[in-house]
UniProtKB/TrEMBL annotation, chain B:
Top-level division of the source organism's lineage: Bacteria
Region (Disordered) location: 1-33, 73-93
Protein name: Sarcosine oxidase subunit gamma
InterPro entries according to UniProt: SoxG (IPR007375), TrmE/GcvT-like (IPR027266)
């Protein structure tokens, strides 16, 4: 077991072995391993086969840049907490922390959601955070940035995607001030942990940077702890991106065999995980970092067969060290291909860089380490609008003209040497704090000008185009896209790197081009024969790494998903078994079924009670707006289509308001409380929109009007007492209140004591029956309701819901804004000219004079009586003419309009409907047809008032 | 019912509660979260790293609007004993005794006084309205409107070292003491769009949340959900923000 594990070293806990299963085979690893490091330690070399070409692939990288090693994770069905452990359909083995009992299967490029276990069962939530300085990445530059910023007293958030902080230092044996770098990391973290205003977040990936320095970061919880995560929404005054760099691959034939690996990744596996990914390695490089990797690997016991450096001259520092260890270096040479046996690499084919591409020699190896230089991780920088420029020496895109609110530090801006990164981070952290007026006294100096040794020209293409088959030179291993695909794209006429990306799909897989992006751009430029700088690069978009939808949803699921508004009577409705209807965000009782009753039966019973006895309804949800000021009456006169200036104190009036285009917007009854004070009621769902509408006109058009509007919707709870016996019930509830028509006429309101509660009573009817609406403080709502029901018990008072209300009002032809209207209906269309004043101006009046609003063939509100009195027309059904010809001759059939409301009426003993019908008032008495699937139903067009046309019932 | 004894911002739980006003009506009045008092009491965790959530019911609240015809700020001092000045600085509250004036906008305040004081507060507001009215039409005439909104919203008090963390899960406002001090207030959206007024309590790590009565259950559900990890005492997240 653990055939490739070093005896000592690494940041794994050898005292804590873990058992896991990969593709059905049981392996062991250690606490601190990733799935990838544990598999390499167990000698697993071929990991999967590629998506379309079916080629064997191995682990290539050591982090989020891994293109090959995709796995699905499955909970152990026998584990006691199996239900709590999430299934993860697709993730990278290189970022999967090993846990005991982990069960993974390799994936061939695509994950699969398990049908039996839909959804993510981990607990996901969200957290808002605010800070002065956010530092993304806790490598050398990030740590110094956070330290210097925190030392000024700034509120600092330092986050890193890894389980522990230290970044690249975790995978190297670098020294800082002659001490192992990790000692320095420990010291720096202890200092930061002691700062009261500093927050340290590990396992947290900044996935998006948006306007105003709004950064979204995803924190993962260990799968062993049930999975899940936390979405951090961070608003930072300043940001330091210390996001590091990703190593670039090299292009050569068969550069995708298992055993080909990034040099820095092998270095990390050895140093961090105590694992050697092979026995004998060839290192192919064009930059210094591969030497550091090779030497550390050699020290760890890996045989370095040869270093192949594309540069003509090896830096003397590295040449001397290689000589010390008897490592051969071939300067001016490149790898042009690889040999494989049993799927994995067995030899590297070498050639002179300036030669004809023919391999001059082969070097046996089971590990071919490649390093094509480093790509700064500029994703967050460019997401937030930062620009980049192509650096010819580094062969990559580096941040350019960064916004001072978002600095880039360290390897993320192309620095390579550790000392430079430390100094650069310190300067960035101090500058960010000093921007905010914070200082610790001393200003760290940024590193001096640095001239990197230029990479060899024409990178990444070999000097000779004949060097190996382009169809075997993999640019994007996840997509199995090769240099040949780029040549084909360019040959097909594509000149833009964005087009080539979409044609070849390079950079569109799970790693979003971290390994392939710059290589693809350079290769495209090479094929086109233009400078890479001129070609540009593709656009980075969030998220930086994949984010589960469950994390974005967070806790906003189920009852927390959307606000639910309830009235003070809600508990009673629940206890009474009400069936609820959503009205906007409100829960309103739709009907109160008795045992054994269906909706039709319950509604029929409730309707009869209101028409024949007495019934009561919770009307607390109606929007209520207190309108005060010397100009309040003038204001209402302008807002409503009807006149309000002459409304007397103690009275109320129904009003319709229109938008500027003359269309009905809302309606309701407004009480005049005093000369300068009104209380407006709005429809339940429209209360906030109406208040916004009033404020918009007051603030932008009529600031000279002295009017104040205040929402008082929940200040009042309301109960409507409806029916011929309503007066008898109210007489006992409010013995002091004169209730006869002469004292308390229709559309009047009175303050009174009702059931011992201070109340406001209004004679308003939305049913056509004698009705009183009683309003009390919201605190007293439940008391009022119970008193009304107790007092009315003698009369058999019946609670009713919105469905009954709809039937009652429709029988009277009263519209519901939003149901019988849709924003294209004028008051005149509804036959409500009586509510529209001709003697004053109001919002929408001019639009009523447009030719279009006076067309005779506009859609009018009319009634429909189906010929079959039991036929309930579906709301929304379209109406067509009574036809005479053949069906085929009538297609397409013009629609005359649609059914807006349709009910069974207890009072009429039949079904009926309201409808908007083209030229409807001229069709009264005629017949229309309703197409219902394979049959057609005839209905007579009528006036939209079906019950008590004389209006004699409202006075009892 | 100890949990529903009306207490006040500022004085809050420490001072002796004011006398309970007589219950109105035969069935008694109900605050919007009265039915959840026990649940709230159970959900919290007292102590150094705990958090507690309570309803502060039946506070007297008036919405006050004042604007000068010239458009100038018409802040004034209300003639309570002791007097209560209206805050002029956006996002702040002024307190005086057990009364509080909360800045809601350039011409809008919320006046919060103890339970059962609606008549007194109404009279005081009428007096300030009449005193500053002046002759109609003059540039310096101040127009005043006040409306009782006591039952329009109820108040939640969340306190304890974890109070900020609980609120940070549902509220985008920066509640750090440097940004949201002892006299701070903000109108904001909680969770998925419930409109609330957030006021720093007098005690550190305490906040008053004025939430419209119809949203009270929904907001409470969110706060309880957010509290769960701290109330349990063992956070599943290793990363703790200070």
């Amino acid at each position: 077991m653990n055939s490739h594990r070093l005896r000592t070293g690494g940041r794994i806990d050898r005292a804590h072995p873990l058992t896991f299963t990969f593709d059905g085979t049981v392996h062991t690893g250690y606490q601190g391993d990733t799935l990838a490091s544990a598999l390499l330690a167990n000698g697993v070399r071929t990991f999967t086969t590629s998506l379309t070409h079916g080629r064997p692939r191995g682990i290539y990288a050591a982090g989020v840049d891994e293109p090959n090693a995709l796995v699905g994770l499955h909970p152990d069905p026998h584990a006691p907490d199996a239900a709590a452990r999430p299934a993860e359909p697709m993730t990278q083995a290189t970022v999967t922390e090993l846990y005991d009992g982990l069960r993974a299967t390799s994936l061939r490029g695509k994950g699969r959601l398990e049908a039996g276990r839909p959804g993510d069962h981990g607990r996901h939530d969200a957290m808002h955070a605010h800070c002065d300085v956010l530092v993304v990445g806790a490598g050398p530059a990030g740590l110094t940035a956070a330290r210097t910023a925190a030392s000024t007293g700034a509120r600092v958030v330092l986050l890193d995607e890894q389980p522990e902080m230290g970044g690249s230092l975790l995978g190297t044996r670098e020294h800082i001030a002659d001490r192992p770098a990790l000692e320095w990391v420990r010291h720096a973290l202890a200092e930061l942990a002691g700062r009261a205003e500093t927050t340290l977040l590990t396992r947290t990936t900044a996935v998006g940077c948006y306007d105003h320095n709004y950064v979204v970061a995803a924190e993962r919880r260990l799968p062993a702890a049930g999975g899940g995560g936390r979405l951090w929404q961070i608003r930072a005054r300043r940001i330091v991106f210390a996001t590091g760099a990703h190593e670039r691959p090299l292009l050569f034939a068969d550069n995708d065999r298992p055993g080909v690996m990034l040099a820095g990744a092998a270095r990390t596996y050895a140093n961090r995980y105590g694992t050697l990914p092979g026995r004998r390695a060839v290192v192919a490089a064009n930059n210094d970092s591969a030497y550091a990797a090779a030497l550390e690997l050699a020290d760890a016991g890996l045989e370095i067969a040869r270093i192949v450096d594309a540069r003509d001259h090896v830096p003397p520092y590295w040449a001397a060290r290689c000589a010390d260890r008897h490592i051969d270096v071939s300067a001016g040479h490149v790898v042009v291909g690889s040999r494989g046996g049993d799927g994995t690499v067995t030899a590297a084919l070498l050639a002179a860089r300036e030669g004809d591409g023919t391999a001059s020699s082969a070097a046996d190896c089971d590990l071919l380490l490649v390093s094509g230089g480093w790509n700064p991780a500029v994703q967050l920088h460019t997401q937030s609008g930062g620009r980049t420029r192509y650096d010819e020496r580094l062969c990559c895109h580096v941040p350019h003209e960064p916004d001072p609110r978002r600095r880039v530090a360290g390897a993320a801006r192309g620095l390579a040497r550790l000392g430079d990164c430390l100094a650069d981070g310190a300067a960035a952290g101090a500058d960010a704090a000093s921007d905010l007026g914070l200082s610790a006294g001393q200003t760290p100096q940024p590193p001096g000008a640095w001239e990197p040794a230029p990479l060899p020209p024409l990178w990444p293409l070999p000097a000779c185009p004949a060097a190996g088959d382009p169809a075997a030179q993999y640019v994007d291993m996840q997509r199995d896209a090769t240099l040949a695909d780029i040549e084909r794209a360019v040959g097909g006429g594509m000149r833009s790197v964005e087009h080539v990306k979409r044609y070849t799909t390079i950079g569109t897989a799970h790693d979003q081009g971290r390994t392939s992006g710059v290589t693809a751009a350079a290769a495209t430029a090479g094929v086109l024969g233009v400078p890479v700088a001129e070609l540009g690069t593709t656009t980075n978009r969030p998220p930086y790494t994949p984010v589960p939808f469950a994390l974005l949803a967070g806790r906003a699921r189920g009852r927390l998903h959307d606000p639910v508004r309830t009235t003070p009577l809600h508990a009673w409705h629940l206890a009474r078994g009400a069936v609820f209807e959503n009205v906007g965000q409100w829960k309103r009782p739709r009907y109160y079924p008795r045992p054994g009753e269906d909706m039709a039966t319950a509604v029929d019973r409730e309707c009869r009670a209101a028409r024949e006895g007495v019934a009561a309804m919770d009307v607390s949800t109606l929007g209520k707006i207190d309108i005060q000021g010397p100009d309040a009456a003038e204001f209402l006169n302008r807002v409503y289509t009807g006149g309000f200036a002459k409304l007397r104190v103690g009275s109320c009036r129904y009003g319709v308001m229109c938008t500027a285009d003359g269309m009905v917007f809302d309606d309701g009854v407004t009480m005049r409380l005093a000369e300068d004070r009104f209380q407006m009621s709005t429809t339940t769902g429209n209360a906030a929109a109406v208040l916004d509408w009033l404020e918009e006109w007051l603030q932008t058009e009529w600031p000279q009007l002295r009017v104040f509007c205040t929402s008082v919707t929940e200040q009042w709870a309301g109960v409507a007492v409806v029916g011929p016996r309503a007066r008898a019930v109210l007489a006992r509830l409010a013995p002091q209140l004169p209730l006869e028509n002469g004292d308390f006429p229709f559309m009047a309101w009175r303050d009174a004591e009702v059931a011992g509660l201070p109340a406001r009573v209004a004679r308003i009817s939305f049913s056509g029956e004698l009705a009183f609406e009683v309003y009390v403080s919201g605190w007293d709502g439940a008391a009022l309701w119970e008193a009304v029901l107790e007092t009315g018990a003698v009369e058999g008072i019946t609670p009713y819901g919105t469905e009954t209300m709809h039937v009652l009002r429709a029988e009277k032809g009263y519209v519901i804004v939003g149901q019988d209207t849709d924003g294209s209906v004028t008051p005149q269309d509804l036959g409500m000219d009586w509510a529209v004043s001709t003697r004053k101006d109001f919002i929408g009046r001019r639009s009523h004079r447009r030719p279009d609003t006076s067309r005779p063939d506009r859609k009018h509100l009319v009634g429909l009586l189906p010929w079959d009195t039991g036929e309930l027309l579906p709301e929304g059904s379209h109406l067509v003419c009574a036809g005479s010809g053949e069906p085929e001759a009538r297609t397409p059939v013009p629609s005359l309009g649609h059914v807006t409301s349709s009910y069974r009426s207890a009072a009429l003993g039949r079904t009926f409907a309201l409808a908007l019908v083209r030229g409807g008032r001229d069709r009264i008495g005629g017949t229309v047809h309703v197409a219902l699937g394979d049959r057609t139903v005839a209905a007579q067009v009528t006036e939209p008032v079906f019950y008590d046309r004389e209006g004699s019932r409202r006075d009892g | 019912m100890a949990d529903t004894v009306a207490t006040l911002p500022g004085a809050l739980t420490r001072a002796a509660p004011p006398p309970e006003p007589p219950a109105a009506g035969p069935h008694g009045r109900h605050s919007p979260l009265q039915h959840r008092a026990d649940e709230l009491a159970r959900a919290g965790r007292p102590g150094r790293s705990g958090v507690e959530l309570r309803e502060v019911p039946f506070l007297t609240q008036f919405n006050l609007r004042r604007r000068q015809r010239s458009g100038h700020n018409a802040a004034a001092t209300l003639g309570f004993t002791p007097p209560l000045a209206l805050p002029r600085t956006p996002g702040t509250v002024r307190r005086s005794g057990d009364r509080m004036a909360v800045w809601l906008g350039p011409d809008e305040w919320l006046i919060v006084t103890p339970p059962g004081t609606a008549a007194e507060t109404g009279n005081t507001l009428r007096a300030v309205a009449e005193a500053s009215a002046g002759p109609d039409g003059e540039a310096d005439t101040v127009y005043t409107a006040y409306t009782e909104v006591s039952a329009h919203s109820t108040t939640l008090r969340i306190s304890g070292a974890r109070a900020r963390d609980v609120l940070r899960k549902v509220c985008p406002i920066d509640l750090h003491p440097r940004a949201f001090g002892g006299d701070a207030c903000a109108q904001t959206l909680l969770a998925r769009g419930a409109r609330v007024l957030l006021v720093a309590d007098r005690e550190p790590d305490g906040f008053l949340l004025f939430v419209r009565a119809s949203f009270a259950d929904y907001v409470t559900d969110w706060l309880l959900d957010s509290m769960a990890e701290y109330a349990a005492g063992d956070s599943p997240f290793k990363n703790e923000e200070r």
